[in-house]
Amino acid sequence: MTGFRSLSAGLRALQPAAFGADPSGERLARIRRSPHFADGAFVNPEGARTRPSGGSALELAKLYFRKEDRARRAPAGTVPVHATTYADLAKPPASGLRLTWMGHSSVLAEIDGHRVLFDPVWGERCSPFDFAGPKRLHPVPLPLAALGPVDVVVISHDHYDHLDLPTIKALAGTDTVFAIPLGVGAHLEHWGVSPDRLRELDWNESTKIGGITLTATPARHFCGRGLRNGQHTLWASWTVAGDEHRIYHSGDTGYFEGFKDIGAEHGPFDATMIQIGAYSEYWPDIHMTPEEGMRAHLDLQGGQPHGVMMPIHWATFNLAPHPWAEPGEWTKDAAEEAGQAVALPRPGAPFEPSGKLPVDPWWRAVSTPIARPWRRPEAADAAPVTKDDLDLDLAGER
């Protein structure tokens, strides 16, 4: 134990700011009063296994280090990023709603005259270190400073591929407001964001900023940025409602029945941004496959095709053993089978959900062929995960 504590202290000394800060004072008291906090940790709406153990962990390690598998987990050529310019975004959307996927889970949503930036990650690595950890597979479409004013930055949870220190530090010098899950404010204050710019919400709590209402809704995931993970920061999906439009961002989540409740309470949505990448049978409860993502989209819409689904959380970082292009290919297949409208933009290409949708499978030109059929077998049984299993890998979420 002494050696482990020494290692933890040494790693924190290397780059202490990236680990953030633990909640304390009134923030911690509020966490402990939350109906979703029990036995010293936030709990999921349904139980969730977060990582493999024993033999499964060994199998996963073999997948990661096998040369042919490593090649499939990255693009085979240069990702065709749209060179987004200020001119692309300067003219208001004709319909009142426009989405620009910046890669991974980062999305600029322009909704009814307001600009909302979800999970902005402009850093080169999703890691506490600038020399190790998952590195970007394509550049950001435009510099953060060229994005223009943002009314609200929404953070889904505090994993490195969603809450990025250099990006937050850059945004700390602006006037933007941050909508964040309960507990995450401790990190942002530690990094220089003024407390009066934080709107820190528990599940099913809402805040109104200008003419839009943002609600933190449940998700099935976990949290943490360091060697130990006390589950003291919440994870969330988010709904945003304007005068004319409604949108949903899933953050990271496994499939769960609560999508139906979210849709009944806050939907239907003109567009949903759904996590469909970094899935694996080794952690089936915390990330969705494309088929599960499509099921979640339909649940959110009351079971009927409605609005547009845009896949997120793929193509930008290598966080799982599946082939790089598989999430895009399988989402396209799942949408066709469901008869559902899906938007598949290149990173940086703005589109309006009510207009012509980007549906070209652009990834095929820069990836190896997908060998596996899109319908995956049921997740393999795994050993139960203990509280100690919730510790994060330092190099990123996975």
UniProtKB/TrEMBL annotation:
This is MBL fold metallo-hydrolase. It comes from Streptomyces yaanensis. Residues 114-314 form the Metallo-beta-lactamase domain. Residues 375-398 are annotated as: Disordered. Transmembrane segments: none annotated. Pfam families: Lactamase_B_2.
